[in-house]
Structures are given as structure tokens and as C-alpha cells.
Write a structure and sequence with these properties.
The structure holds 2 protein chains of 2 kinds. Chain A is of the alpha/beta class. Chain A folds into 2 domains: 5-112, 3-Layer(aba) Sandwich (Oxidized Rhodanese, domain 1); 139-235, Oxidized Rhodanese, domain 1, CATH 3.40.250.10. Chain A has helices at residues 5-11, 20-28, 41-46, 57-61, 82-94, 106-112, 139-148, 161-165, 177-180, 201-212; strands at residues 17-18, 34-37, 53-54, 75-78, 100-103, 153-157, 173-174, 192-196, 216-219, 223-226, 232-235. In chain A, β4 (75-78), α5 (82-94) and β5 (100-103) form a beta-alpha-beta unit. The longest helix of chain A is centred in the middle third of the chain and has 13 residues, at 82-94. Chain B is α/β, with parallel strands linked by helices. Chain B is built from 5 helices and 9 strands. Chain B has a 6-stranded mixed sheet, with no helix packed on it. Chain B has a 3-stranded parallel sheet with strand order 8-7-9. Classes of the chains: A alpha/beta, B alpha/beta. At the A-B interface, α1, β1, α2 and α10 of A face α1, β1, β3, α2 and α4 of B.
Chain lengths: 236, 194
């Protein structure tokens, strides 16, 4: 029994393999995956997995900055050469991307599983947008509402009294998370209720409370610091 | 031997390879136990068994992940904790058993029991470096079978080279995948005994 299991295996930086079907499934569920083609650009242009980004082994080593800021982002490497795939794995894994894997069977594994290739130039830039958490609002949308306070929306601040004393968004309603359930009458129905706390955790809790009560609720799933004058900064 | 492995795998897996699939329960009839915990556990009407999703000491609130549903409960100084030093030391996604009572419109956690990893005889255990050595040979050459006991979906996402997928919950159904040669070394792994 390998009781450490896959986490211990990954921790040791060992090679991890993913099935072509994983990529197919992730596309179905619209889960973003970074797909890296490590063959030569000429070969890749003739036929590659849709959405793949092209890097030769040498280019890859210089491409660290292009990789997602989220280290949990899944990265799938494929090639027609196991050595190249393994080298790329080592490089990317060292940067901290713990969900990096090599596609079983490489490019042939993909086609043998009945999947199509596309031809033409590959993207040379990685675009990775994490799938939003259910009920969460994008930082920019939050900013727009907080600065304009449209008539159809309210901001609900669920931090506690000491935190709020240090500054609050102008026009926001303040109810600490643990009191939300008992003070529903203070929250307008028929309006978008946009909830924030300091980190997103309590906001998600208040979100759940309001959702169960039928409110049109959203929450900011990010760190936010608010100044005494009501201005704020979101950490994304 | 196979039976022993089975028992062991179940106990080890309780805290790991959970199926994240959607539930058949309607929202009005929220499940109180996570699907993968059902293999070994039942819950009373005032209990929940699932994974700790999030916790806020400031709001004295915790959320329990239950597949398609999420439960939200309050806790306080009287909440009894078993298996962790402090409520914020339980660890995210740990399996917990919560006994609760209705408190007005809310649920109050009376007791939280944190699932502990199973104890395994040391002679049964192999380390990552041993596995690395074993998988450097093909299963045929090395006369071994590496079995990934996590749900099939996570196997697809990433596994060890040469591993065969056999989700523990379907172990009995999958017994036929085991090698005919009883001398073949069987190595099981999952999502870790955390």
C-alpha cells in the first residue's frame, strides 16, 4: 500500500499522467486547462490539439512569466517524444504547478481516442481564466457597482463592527455574517445583493444564507481592503 | 489477503477519494451524508458527515460540503471538538461528523468529530521512492499491478504511470481486473491518508 498516495507522489516531483479523456471532459464542463505542445512549431502547425499553445523545450524555459498566477491551474503537456514531454514536465513542475501532467500516448493517444486535430498556427501566448466560483462576482463588476451604486443593486458588508470601524464602502449596508439570517428584513428584495467581507469566506457564507432565502445574491470571492474614506482595493 | 486489502482500502479512502458528482436529492431534501462516506457510515437525523468546506471564527460559522449541497452551521464556545486541537486547525476538506441541533432559524453544531487516518501495519506500506523504483519496470517485467483506488474521474486527471483505475467503491465489481497470478505484487494508492 502506497499510503501517501498521489499527493506524496506529486510532492516528490514525479511524473503524472493524464488521459486524453480528461481534456475532452474538461472542455465539456468548460474547466480551463493549459495545453502545451512541445513539438517543433512546424510539426505542431500541421496538426495539433485545439487550444494548445506551442513551446519548444528551449522556448518553454523562458516562458515562466506567461504561466497562470494560480499554481493550481491544470497543465497538460503532449508531444510525440517522451523525452521532450518529460523535460517540459520537470520545467513546469519546478515552477510550482502541481497539477501538471503528461498526456498518455501523446499526440497519437489523442487521435487514437477518436479526437480531432486542427492545423494552422498555434497560439504562442497562454490565456488562462479560472472558472468562476458559483455566485461570485468579477472584481471589475464589483468595482462598477461599488462606485456607481446603481438603483438595482446594493453592497452588503458582512464584516464585524471592529473591521467596519476602519472604513466602509460608501452606501453599503452593514450586517455581520452571523446576524444576516436574523436581519433579512434590512436587505432589499428584488435588487442584486452584492456581498463582501475581507477575504471572501464570510461573504460566501452570507451568500448561501441569502440564496436559501430567495435573494438575488452575489459575493466577492477575493481579498478586499477598505480605507477610512471608503476607497478600496481588491487583491486578485 | 485480498479481503484484507479491501477493508484497509475502505478505511483509508474514507478521508480521500470522494466522488464530486451531483446528487439526486432535491434541494428541499438535502443529503446529510457525502455519497462516498456511505460505504462505511450512516448518520442520525441530527448529524452530518461530509468535508469541511470553510470556517470563520469571526462569524462562528462553518460550511460542510455534501456533493451537490452545502450545509451551513453556527458553532460557539460550547461546541465540542474531537480529533483536532482547535476548530481552525481541522484543515480544509477534512472529513467531519457534525452533531447539531436546530437553534431558531439556524443549525448549531454541538459536536464536531474529525476523521482520523486509519492505522496500517508498517510492513504493508511502500514509500514514493519504492513506487518510483517499481514503476521503472513495466508491470509485466516487474510482476506488479499498481491500482489507483480513487474515483475514475480523478484518475483521468492524473495518475502514476502504468496504474490501473479501480475505484474502491466499485472494488467488488472490479475484482476481475486483478491478475490471475496470485504472486503478482499489488500496490494500492489513493488520494492520501490525510
Amino acid at each position: 500500500m502506497f499510503s501517501g498516495g498521489l499527493p506524496a507522489w506529486k510532492k516528490g516531483g514525479n511524473y503524472v499522467y493524464s488521459s486524453p479523456k480528461y481534456l475532452v471532459n474538461s472542455r465539456k464542463t468548460e474547466t480551463p486547462v493549459v495545453v502545451i505542445d512541445v513539438r517543433s512549431q512546424a510539426k505542431a502547425a500541421k496538426g495539433h490539439i485545439p487550444g494548445a499553445v506551442s513551446f519548444t523545450t528551449a522556448q518553454l524555459k523562458k516562458a515562466k512569466k506567461q504561466f497562470p498566477s494560480v499554481k493550481a491551474a491544470p497543465v497538460v503537456i503532449y508531444s510525440d517524444n517522451m523525452k521532450a514531454a518529460k523535460a517540459a514536465f520537470k520545467t513546469i513542475r519546478k515552477w510550482g504547478y502541481k497539477n501538471t501532467s503528461i498526456m498518455v500516448g501523446g499526440i497519437t493517444g489523442w487521435t487514437q481516442a477518436g479526437n480531432k486535430l486542427v492545423s494552422g498556427q498555434l497560439a504562442s501566448k497562454i490565456v488562462y481564466v479560472p472558472k468562476p466560483v458559483k455566485g461570485s462576482i468579477a472584481a471589475n463588476d464589483f468595482k462598477a457597482i461599488a462606485s456607481n451604486m446603481p438603483a438595482d443593486a446594493v453592497i452588503l458588508d458582512v464584516r464585524d463592527a471592529t473591521e467596519v470601524a476602519g472604513g466602509m464602502i460608501k452606501g453599503a449596508i452593514h450586517i455581520p455574517t452571523q446576524e444576516v439570517g436574523a436581519r433579512l428584513s434590512e436587505i432589499p428584495r428584488g435588487k442584486k445583493v452584492v456581498i463582501h467581507c475581507r477575504t471572501g469566506i464570510r461573504a460566501s457564507m452570507a451568500y448561501q444564507t441569502l440564496k436559501e432565502k430567495g435573494f438575488d445574491a452575489y459575493f466577492l470571492n477575493a481579498k478586499i481592503s477598505i480605507n477610512p474614506d471608503g476607497s478600496f482595493k481588491i487583491d486578485s | 489477503m485480498r479481503k484484507m486489502f479491501k477493508i484497509l482500502m475502505i478505511s483509508l479512502l474514507i478521508s480521500s477519494g470522494f466522488a464530486m458528482g451531483s446528487s439526486v436529492f432535491a434541494s428541499a431534501d438535502k443529503p446529510r451524508i457525502l455519497k462516498s462516506c456511505k460505504q462505511c457510515h450512516e448518520v442520525d437525523e441530527n448529524q452530518l458527515r461530509g468535508k469541511l468546506q470553510s470556517i470563520s471564527r469571526k462569524a462562528e460559522t462553518l460550511q460542510v460540503f455534501m456533493g451537490a449541497a452545502t450545509w451551513q452551521l453556527r458553532f460557539n464556545k460550547e461546541t465540542e471538538l474531537d480529533g483536532a486541537k482547535a476548530i481552525n486547525k481541522i484543515g480544509k476538506l477534512k472529513e467531519i461528523l457534525v452533531t447539531f441541533e436546530q437553534d431558531g432559524d439556524e443549525l448549531l453544531a454541538k459536536q464536531i468529530v474529525v476523521k482520523q487516518p486509519a492505522s496500517i501495519p508498517p510492513e504493508w506500506i511502500v514509500k514514493a521512492k519504492d513506487v518510483k523504483k517499481i514503476v521503472s519496470k513495466s508491470p509485466e517485467k516487474g510482476n506488479y499491478m499498481l491500482i489507483d483506488a480513487r474515483p475514475g474521474k480523478v484518475f483521468l486527471e492524473g495518475h502514476i504511470q502504468g496504474a490501473v483505475s479501480s475505484y474502491d467503491a466499485q472494488f467488488d465489481k472490479n475484482v476481475k481486473i486483478l491478475p490471475e497470478n496470485k504472486d503478482t505484487m499489488l500496490i494500492f494508492y489513493c488520494g492520501g491518508a490525510t
